[in-house]
């Protein structure tokens, strides 16, 4: 953790090459005096607990805190959203006891079977993503684990339950989902934003690979492939599509609102799943994006069929892009674009929702800053990639701005207008899930979520029965709501599923007593409803039911095999 309260000893700074010390050496005049005397990490923690405690005391079980009236409101469905979204941040800040308490509380209090029109996108990224991440981190949080963890566990079951409620939205002629879903009284419009179609693969593939039920990954992939087919002749997608007719209803192409996380998930999905198809999709889009929308390291909005500029604006949601580019190794371009965006931040002390690039002003009715994380998120990735202290400076600027402009006695309020600092009575759940998490991680480059432990070694923890899973060793992929997912757990649980199948096949073959095996047919007949067969099964391949027994440790498997072999010899 960077500690800008540390007395500087230049010698120790040089000797240790400890960033903890060097940071203060660089910034001591600016940031090691006065109000900023506290270490950044402590200031960020205080910010978190001011907002979090206010939510718990005044708003829970509502979705969000209203920081001006000091009460709560439901916004995205009535799932105690802020608490689910904030759960993994508790662990990121090192609070294992509160993580454990809240994980238990949520299991007892949240009900997904309610009559609400829930946003399929928001429920996925905040609820499914938040629960999956908390499930994967529950080993680090010291929770009591089921023998088969990380391939089972109560938070995983909650994530699965909430995702299953979203599945009816995917039952469309195209496979592209409706934007909202209500199991009780469905009244959905078929017009959905692009991100609402293409932002599922991280959570849904994680669910499928942890639980063995392929249906989630399949629907997410089907939606992605359908969307891919609708791109224009010049390789761009628009902003809103009719998911039944496949007609583009809003034809502005860009990287911001309505589209952003679609591109993010192609890249992160490619990394997490080592998936060439997703990467190729992104690279083809990227060529068109660079050709038609990229000017002077800004990204504009253009007509998706003609490539003509429709809106020369920068939107605050676009600020995730430099971070994404850094994941792809496009550092030079990322750094230049970040500088453009940072100049807007400096101009207003925050990022307005829309900024007119030619005029250098905010755009009418889009002057607000709802405490979004995107620029801080990019700063975290770019600092990780370059070590350049510019990114820490952005972090300090963000801390100062948010404290000065948005803090209320009862939390932090969205800024309605960055020009006069009027506030809105809203604190979105992403403030605790993302903004504060990325700020904290920016100042803690040895945090385990960066793939290192506090000594800078590669971190890992064991999971799974018999300690067969090595977790956390390959780093973490953040979903678009900053919920970290562990690719190693996916690999581990898929492998267990595969092992179970192989063992089952051996047992079934041997039980045929030398007769040809009919196991595949029998399996198809007994496949339980809601389960969709084998991961990645292709047309023509025989589908097989999954065994429901827990994964056996290696010794137990050997014992069973030994028994089988002795029975048959
Ligand atoms: C978050 O809910 C997610 O980051 C989403 O992808 C975009 N909007 C907010 C944060 O700005």
| Total beta-strand segments | 23
Inertia-based shape: globular
Distance between the termini: 62 Å
Radius of gyration: 25 Å
Mean pLDDT: 85
Characterize the largest beta sheet: strand count, sense, and whether it forms a barrel: 3 strands, antiparallel
Bound small molecules, deduplicated: 1-deoxymannojirimycin
- Strand line-up of the largest beta sheet: 5-6-7
Comma- or semicolon-separated keywords:
mainly alpha, Seven-hairpin_glycosidases, 3-stranded antiparallel sheet, unfolded protein response, 569 residues, EC 3.2.1.-, calcium
How would you describe the overall organization of this protein?
- The protein has 569 residues and is mainly alpha-helical.
- The protein is 48% helix and 10% strand.
- It has 20 helices and 23 strands.
- Strands 5-6-7 form a three-stranded antiparallel beta sheet.
- β22 (477-478) and β23 form a beta hairpin.
- α6 packs across α9.
- The longest helix is centred in the last third of the chain and has 25 residues, at 487-511.
- Bound molecules: 1-deoxymannojirimycin.
- Residues 125, 260-261, 317, 372-374, 430, 434, 480-481 line the site of 1-deoxymannojirimycin (DMJ).
Annotate the secondary structure layout:
Layout: H1 10-16, H2 19-31, H3 40-58, E1 64-66, E2 71-73, H4 81-92, H5 96-109, E3 118-119, H6 120-137, H7 154-166, E4 180-181, E5 191-193, H8 194-198, H9 201-211, H10 215-229, E6 240-242, E7 248-250, E8 252-253, H11 260-273, H12 276-292, E9 294-295, E10 298-299, E11 301-303, E12 309-311, E13 313-315, H13 321-328, H14 331-348, E14 354-356, E15 361-362, H15 374-386, H16 390-406, E16 407-408, E17 411-412, E18 415-417, E19 422-423, H17 430-442, E20 461-463, E21 469-471, E22 477-478, E23 484-485, H18 487-511, H19 519-526, H20 554-567
Helix pairs in contact: 1-2, 3-17, 4-5, 4-6, 4-17, 6-7, 6-9, 7-9, 9-10, 9-18, 11-12, 11-13, 13-14, 13-15, 14-15, 15-16, 15-17
Bound molecules: 1-deoxymannojirimycin.
1-deoxymannojirimycin binds next to helix 11 and helix 17.
């Amino acid at each position: 953790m960077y500690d800008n309260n540390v007395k500087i000893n230049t010698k120790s700074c040089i000797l240790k090459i400890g960033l903890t010390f060097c940071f203060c050496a660089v910034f001591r005049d600016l940031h090691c005096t006065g109000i900023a005397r506290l270490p950044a990490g402590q200031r960020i923690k205080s910010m978190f607990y001011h907002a979090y405690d206010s939510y718990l005391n005044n708003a829970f079980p509502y979705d969000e805190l209203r920081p001006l009236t000091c009460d709560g409101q439901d916004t995205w469905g009535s799932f105690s959203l802020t608490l689910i979204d904030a759960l993994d941040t508790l662990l990121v800040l090192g609070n294992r006891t509160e993580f454990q308490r809240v994980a238990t509380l949520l299991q007892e209090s949240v009900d997904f079977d309610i009559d609400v029109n829930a946003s399929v996108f928001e429920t996925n990224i905040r609820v499914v993503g938040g629960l999956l991440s908390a499930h994967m981190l529950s080993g680090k949080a010291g929770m009591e684990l089921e023998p088969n963890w990380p391939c089972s566990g109560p938070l995983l079951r909650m994530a699965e339950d909430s995702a299953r409620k979203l599945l009816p939205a995917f039952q469309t002629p195209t496979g592209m989902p409706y934007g909202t879903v209500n199991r009780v009284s469905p009244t959905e419009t078929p017009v959905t934003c692009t991100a609402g179609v293409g932002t599922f693969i991280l959570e849904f593939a994680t669910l499928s690979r942890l639980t063995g039920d392929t249906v989630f990954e399949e629907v997410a992939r089907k939606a992605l492939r359908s969307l891919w087919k609708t791109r224009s002749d010049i390789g761009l997608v628009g902003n809103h599509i009719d998911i039944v007719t496949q007609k583009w209803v809003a034809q502005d192409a860009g990287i911001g609102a309505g589209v952003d996380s679609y591109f993010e998930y192609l890249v992160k999905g490619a990394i997490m799943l080592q998936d060439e198809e997703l990467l190729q999709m992104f690279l083809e889009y990227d060529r068109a994006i660079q050709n038609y929308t990229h000017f002077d390291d800004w990204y504009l909005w253009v007509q998706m069929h003609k490539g003509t500029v429709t809106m020369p604006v920068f939107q605050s949601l676009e600020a995730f892009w430099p971070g994404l580019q850094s994941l792809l190794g496009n550092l030079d371009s990322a750094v230049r674009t970040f500088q453009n965006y940072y100049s807007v931040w400096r101009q207003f002390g925050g990022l307005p929702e829309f900024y007119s690039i030619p005029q250098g002003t905010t755009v009418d009715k889009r002057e607000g800053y709802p405490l979004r994380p995107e620029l801080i998120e990019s700063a975290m990735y770019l600092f990780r990639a370059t070590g350049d202290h510019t990114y820490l400076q952005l972090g300090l600027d963000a801390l100062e701005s948010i404290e000065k402009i948005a803090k209320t006695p009862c939390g932090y309020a969205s800024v309605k207008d960055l020009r006069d600092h009027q506030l809105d009575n809203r604190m979105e759940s992403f403030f605790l899930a993302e903004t504060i998490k990325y700020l904290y991680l920016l100042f803690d480059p040895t945090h385990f979520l960066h793939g290192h432990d506090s000594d800078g070694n590669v971190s890992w923890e064991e999971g799974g029965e018999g300690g067969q899973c090595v977790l956390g060793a390959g780093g973490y992929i953040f979903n678009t709501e900053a919920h970290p997912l562990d690719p190693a757990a996916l690999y581990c649980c898929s492998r267990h599923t595969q092992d179970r199948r192989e063992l089952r096949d051996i047992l079934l073959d041997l039980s045929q007593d030398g007769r040809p095996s009919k196991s595949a047919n029998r399996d198809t007949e007994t496949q339980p409803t809601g389960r969709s067969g084998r991961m990645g099964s292709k047309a023509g391949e025989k589908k097989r039911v999954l065994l429901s027994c827990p994964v056996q440790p290696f010794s137990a498997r050997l014992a069973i095999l030994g028994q089988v072999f002795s029975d048959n010899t």
